[in-house]
Design brief:
Blueprint lengths: L10 E14 L4 E7 L2 E7 L13 H12 L6 E10 L8 E12 L13 H6 L1 H4 L3 H23 L3 E2 L5 E2 L11 E4 L2 E5 L4 H9 L4 E9 L12 E10 L4 H31 L12 E3 H10 L13 H15 L3 E5 L22 E6 L2 E8 L4 H10 L8 H5 L8 E7 H8 L21
Parallel strand pairs: 3-5, 6-10, 12-13
Antiparallel strand pairs: 1-2, 1-4, 2-3, 4-5, 7-9, 8-9, 10-11, 11-16, 13-14, 14-15, 15-16
The structure holds aspartyl-adenosine-5'-monophosphate.
């Protein structure tokens, strides 16, 4: 790997990578070669443009000179040569004097992705876009973040589950449901593993987690919505309230960001100009009604008093938390039952409020969590209240008819976390292959 060259001693080496830059000067040629780990400068000091009868290596030198002169950017080559440490070389302090350069696969000369290409061109040519070091880093960060979360779950003895993405009914709002032909009937793409992660509680699994695709037929073109996104889900038993869910949530976020800082802090600083900030625990908690009042007192009224916090409200409450409490995260708690799904548990003393929360990170909702209602009669009544007939919920209600412990969990959008962590303008930048209302390719 190219990144390991600096630690090696001078001497013969063999490297492979993509041609990133060519400087073809009269007496010397330079090539910058990149692989997924880094870049190195190659030098051809034996430039020969005309045959030289006195030079026994004339033919080899001529061939090498013209091969380098003809290299197109993005061509994949292998090179053997002499590694030399040289402090004056900015790129890693080493260079390779080329002995032999072999083109493995050449690139078309008209690379459609230039540095200033717009997001749509870059997404059309995502494989070329992903060759950029900052894009590569996004997915290394994602790998580290997911790994750290998995470690927390595994340390707590949770079980990883893989729930079906083809379903017979909706699991969240019916308005955002993708329908697919399914033999003689219809199936729906899972919007969330909600029902199945709760099923694991009735199945006696204790704690479960899943990191998997979720689908929402949401026609919006915002920077935070995708029609297919990666949902980070967990659910666990024996909780007293949504407080327990928030405590696990904090632990996971802190573990994820600590690992990202340790493993990629320097690279993130270099490529994104950002310091990774690991939040302190506990994260601030503000009941939704109070949060609305705070933003109102600061000059912004959430459009409908009985509605969810809108994006502007989220930005404003986050600004307040940042100013007053110096925190990037805030749990908005105790949402009105009228704006929450039927399966959220309500407060004993105040059934108009749910034991639920949204987690806001740098002004954007990244997660919803709650304690779930586990008493089947209450669950049925809450479903009816939302216009859902218990018969429609068939198998789901059965989970609660054979003994189920109190439980709760959350779902978190992985793309949103990455977007906010790396301060990117859109979820498109941090999704391997983005899916939106007008994008199904590549
Ligand atoms: P909710 O619908 O709030 O809750 O979704 C949870 C989180 O998933 C992410 N998300 C999205 N990300 C990108 N594009 C979308 N279209 C999109 N929709 C949602 C968000 C959101 O906060 N079953 C509950 C979770 C639970 O209670 O366990 C649920 O799905 O980051």
């Amino acid at each position: 790997m190219i990144k390991d060259l600096a630690a090696r001693e001078d001497g013969p080496v063999r490297v492979a990578g993509w041609v990133e830059k060519v400087r073809d000067q009269k007496f010397v040629q330079f090539v910058v070669l990149r692989d997924e780990s880094g870049a190195v400068q190659l030098v051809n000091g034996g430039v020969l443009r005309e045959p030289d009868a006195d030079n026994p290596r004339s033919e080899i030198l001529l061939e090498r000179t013209s091969a380098i002169a003809e290299l197109t950017l993005g061509t994949f080559v292998t090179v053997t040569g002499e590694l030399q440490h040289n402090e004056r070389v900015k790129l890693g302090g080493v260079e390779i004097q080329i002995d032999r350069l072999e083109v493995v696969t050449s690139a078309l000369p008209d690379n459609p992705v230039a540095n200033d290409s717009g997001i749509d061109v870059r997404l059309d040519w995502r494989f070329l876009d992903l060759r950029r070091p900052e894009q590569n880093l996004v997915f290394r960060v994602q790998t580290t973040f997911e790994h750290a979360l998995r470690q927390v779950w595994i340390d707590r003895d949770f079980i990883e589950i893989h729930t079906p993405k083809l379903m017979a009914s909706a699991s969240e709002s019916r308005a955002e449901l993708f329908e697919v032909d399914y033999f003689e009937g219809t199936a729906y793409l899972a919007q969330s593993p909600q029902f199945y992660k709760q099923m694991a509680q009735s199945a006696g699994f204790g704690g479960v987690f899943e990191i998997a695709p979720a689908f929402r037929a949401d026609p919006s073109f915002t920077s935070r919505h995708a029609t297919e996104f990666t949902s980070v889900d967990t659910e666990f038993s024996w909780i007293d309230s949504h407080e327990d869910v928030m405590a696990l949530h904090e632990e996971l976020i802190v573990a994820g960001l600590t690992a990202v800082k340790e493993q990629h802090g320097e690279a993130i600083q270099k490529l994104f100009g950002l310091e990774v900030e690991v939040p302190t625990r506990p994260f601030p908690r503000i009941p939704l009604a109070e949060a609305k009042q705070i933003v109102k007192d600061r000059g912004y009224e959430v459009p409908r008093a009985d509605a969810d916090m809108d994006p502007e409200g989220e930005r404003r409450i986050a600004a307040y938390v940042d100013e007053e409490l110096s925190h990037d995260f805030v749990f908005l708690t105790d949402y009105d039952a009228s704006i929450r799904p039927f399966y959220h548990m309500r407060h004993e003393g105040d059934p108009a409020l749910t034991k639920s929360y949204d987690l806001i990170y740098r002004g954007v909702e990244i997660s919803t969590g709650a304690q779930r209602e586990h008493r089947v009669d209450v669950l049925e009544a809450q479903a009816r209240e939302k216009g859902l007939e218990p018969a429609e919920l068939g198998f789901y209600l059965d989970f609660f008819r054979y003994g189920v412990p109190p439980h709760g969990g959350f779902g978190m959008g992985l793309g949103r976390v990455l977007m906010l962590l790396l301060k990117q303008s859109s979820i498109r930048e941090v999704t391997y292959l983005f899916r939106g209302p007008t994008r199904l390719l590549p």
